[in-house]
Design brief:
Blueprint: E1 4-13, E2 25-26, E3 28-42, E4 46-51, E5 59-62, H1 77-88, E6 95-102, H2 112-127, H3 134-149, H4 156-163, E7 168-173, E8 179-183, E9 191-201, H5 205-223, H6 236-242, H7 249-270, H8 277-291, H9 297-308, E10 313-317, E11 322-330, H10 334-348, E12 354-357, E13 365-366
Parallel strand pairs: 4-6
Antiparallel strand pairs: 1-3, 1-13, 2-7, 3-6, 4-5, 7-8, 9-11, 9-12, 10-11
Bound molecules: adenosine-5'-diphosphate and magnesium ion.
Length: 368
């Protein structure tokens, strides 16, 4: 007999790309897709993990022995890392039997990893009565991913999975973690936001991520600010001419214009002008493609073919070099846009992309 079932969603980022490690703003919303965990406590200190999505026998670990670098590697490092992070924070977490099931696409830039972490943390928080609020819980999940799994991700994914609210996008200041729930009801105004998973993942993406991150840090140091978030949009041209290393200029231009785009998206949503997001998304794509240089032919093709079919706007989302793109379209045109993207992929001999409609959905919660 299980003690309960919890769910945590994947997420997609509407706008604010690569701004998180520059102390800037991001604006994700939760997907309807989620990871569910069926959980019971155990009193023998053993963590027994099984996932419908991962082949092989259940993995059993002793919670008292968990430490970074000591795990068996593979998917169980994510939930084991969460238990380690909770215990390392002095919280009293014992053993548990956990069975996961998920419909979040894995490795598509839609944060299946954060969904897995957050659902684990929330279930244990409830069952062991740890008393964690959502943001500190997300922080501990990020620590699990950074330190235990060893992936250098920002705070956006876990915060989105833990804190999003249905019908809203989450405006998050990654410097001080303040958040605002911004109403984002597409259906009410006859719009749809499609997520297009290109199913490609180009191998060099991790090294490129590290280089962009290091480039942004050098640029901030050269400009005498603690992070590029501190370069005001009005001061962009002056900042660009102050930089001696010309290779840093496009990075600065992307981060500063992207911060400005987040502001414009928020203003448009607050003015109930959702259609105005279209050109802002497309402008964001051009900036990621031309200045930040992290797009790829498949992502560019999604954007081009969606716009040619009449979409209001489109952009790559996530880390880049593959993964997913988002497309804003009139709901009445979404089937046309979807088939046009699929046809253009077929014409290039690319694998058929996976396309779904992303309704802003609830964050992590207990479901049974
Ligand atoms: P993303 O978060 O964009 O989907 P990541 O590479 O960050 O991609 O995380 C994907 C990894 O998370 C998978 O390789 C797997 O180890 C783990 N994972 C995610 N969801 C599940 C699941 N339901 N069951 C088992 N492992 C999962
Ligand atoms: Mg991830």
């Amino acid at each position: 007999m299980s003690e309960g079932v919890w769910a945590a969603p994947g997420r997609v980022n509407l706008i604010g790309e690569h701004t998180d490690y520059n102390d800037g703003f991001v604006m994700p919303f939760a997907l309807p897709h989620s990871t569910r965990a069926t959980v019971s406590r155990r009193d023998d200190g053993v963590l027994r993990l099984r996932s419908a999505g991962a082949r092989g026998a259940p993995v059993e670990l002793r919670t008292a022995d968990l430490a970074p670098g000591r795990g068996p590697g593979g998917w169980t490092d994510y939930p084991a890392g969460v238990v380690w992070a909770l215990r390392d924070a002095g919280l009293k977490v014992g053993g548990a039997d956990i069975v996961y099931e998920s419909d979040v696409p894995v490795g598509a830039g839609l944060s299946s990893s954060a969904a897995l972490e957050v659902v684990t943390a929330l279930a244990l928080n409830d069952l062991y009565e740890l008393g964690l609020e959502r943001q500190p819980l997300a922080r501990l999940c990020q620590r699990a991913e950074n330190v235990y799994v060893g992936a250098p991700t920002g705070i956006m994914d876990q915060t989105a999975s833990a804190c999003c609210v249905a019908g809203h996008a989450l405006l998050l200041d990654t410097r001080d973690l303040s958040q605002w729930q911004i109403p984002f009801d597409l259906a009410a105004v006859g719009l749809e936001l499609l997520v297009v998973d290109t199913r490609v993942h180009h191998a060099h993406s991790e090294g490129e991520y590290g280089r962009r991150r290091a480039g942004c840090e050098s640029a901030a140091a050269a400009l005498g600010v603690s992070a590029l978030r501190d370069v005001a949009y009005a001061d962009l041209e002056a900042a660009l001419s102050a930089l001696e290393d010309p290779s840093l200029r496009p990075l600065v231009r992307h981060i500063v214009t992207e911060g400005h785009r987040v502001e414009r998206v928020v203003s448009a949503l607050r003015a109930d002008d959702v259609r105005a997001l279209g050109p802002l998304l497309t402008e964001g794509h051009a900036s990621l493609r031309d200045d930040f240089a992290i797009s790829c032919p498949e992502l560019d093709l999604v954007v081009e073919s969606a716009l040619a079919a009449g979409a209001l706007g489109a952009r790559m989302t996530g880390g880049g070099f593959g993964g997913s793109a988002i497309v804003l379209t009139e709901a009445s045109l979404s089937a046309t846009v979807t088939s046009s993207v699929a046809k253009s992929f077929a014409a290039k001999g690319y694998e058929e992309p996976r396309v779904f409609s992303a309704v802003p959905s609830p964050g992590a919660r207990r479901v049974a």
